[in-house]
Amino acid sequence: MAVAAGRAGRPTLAVVGATGAVGTVMLQILSHRADIWGEIRLIASPRSAGRKLAVRGEEVEVLALAEEVFDGVDVALFDVPDEIAERWAPIAAAKGAVVVDNSGAFRMDPEVPLVVPEVNPHALRVRPRGIVANPSCTTLCMIVALGALHAEYGLRELVASSYQAVSGAGRAGVDTLRRQISLVAGTELGTSPGDVRRAVGDDTGPFPEPVALNVVPWAGAARADGWSSEEMTVRDETRKVLGRPTLPVAVTCVRVPVVTAHSLTLHARFESEVTVAKAREILATAPGVVLFDDPGAGEFPTPADVVGTDPTWVGRVRRALDDPTALDFFVCGDNLRKGSALNTVQIAELVAGART
């Protein structure tokens, strides 16, 4: 599918959901990357129409979501709830736009490629519905590093535990954590059973338990046999991005009192024996990855250090004690940047670069 040239020979881009948390980061990223776009059209719900947002140093008025706003659009970035994407992404595609969708609506659709540019850019070539899906933020915070190792060694099994920032639940998650912190700060709470819960009361926001002074071993909705939707999402997306539909994957998702940046511990088993030296070389030279790994000097990635940056950060690289084909390592990434907005923009740039 060719992408037509827009104004001044450059493609027209639409950002749907421009006023949201991820949409705001998209506009920042678009303002700092190479400017390949003609018009950038900002779209949101009718209640946000008329607002002006800055992009590329200019104030642009937000348009209300409607069919006509996609006239002449070449690429449309969607960051909206699943039900909105399900309705409007096909409309934008029917108007001739290539849709890059950040929701979960199309990720497992066999006719929609799920793309991470550093790992499987070739998947963009076939998009029969005119839609490309962006993986979830948790998957994106690990898959670039994991994909680089997979390309060398061949992944055969993955066990992952995530430590997910509250911003993964949107602004409501961030607001909830900040309110709870104000309730517990300067107290002796956290020293007896249930004292944090009593202080927080019913103000748990989108989480089933308090997140301040706590960790919550749950993210998403309930699925069969005790698994959560977030855990199944990471499993399914990893398989699809790596092209390994039967890959054994076990995931436990945990919410932690961090505002932004997800972390994961990974136990990855490969087809052949691995060495730490070679793994470090692969990670140190992989696009989109920063190896930061000297525990003796106190050097390893943490959310407080990587927030606001684009790469996947990797540390604590070790060969498994009891399996010469397995590596254990820690990854950390900004879930609003590479975990959402940046990957979406990168996909859009690949689509625009392939136009004829």
Question: Could you characterize the architecture of this molecule?
Answer:
- The protein folds into 2 domains: 7-135 and 340-353, 3-Layer(aba) Sandwich (Rossmann fold); 139-335, Dihydrodipicolinate Reductase, domain 2.
- It has 9 helices and 14 strands.
- The protein has helices spanning 21-32, 82-94, 137-153, 171-184, 195-200, 229-242, 276-285, 303-306, 337-353; strands at residues 13-16, 40-44, 52-55, 58-61, 63-64, 75-78, 98-101, 131-133, 155-164, 249-255, 262-270, 289-291, 312-319, 326-333.
- By secondary structure, the chain is α/β, with parallel strands linked by helices.
- Residues 1-7 have low confidence and may be disordered.
- The strands form 3 sheets. The chain has a 6-stranded parallel beta sheet, sandwiched between helices.
What is the share of helical residues?
25-40%
SSE series: EHEEEEEHEEHEHHHEEHEHEEH
The name of the CATH topology of the largest domain is Dihydrodipicolinate Reductase, domain 2
Distance between the termini: 9 Å
Q: Unreliable stretches, pLDDT < 50, 5 or more residues? A: 1-7
Secondary structural class: alpha/beta
The strand count comes to 14
Approximately what portion of the residues adopt beta-strand conformation?
15-25%
The level 1 CATH classification of the largest domain is Alpha Beta
Mind summarizing the main beta sheet? 6 strands, parallel
- Which CATH-level-2 architecture of the largest domain? 2-Layer Sandwich
Query: Mean pLDDT, as a whole number?
Result: 94
CA radius of gyration is 21 Å
Assigned CATH superfamily of the largest domain: Dihydrodipicolinate Reductase, domain 2
Number of helical elements? 9
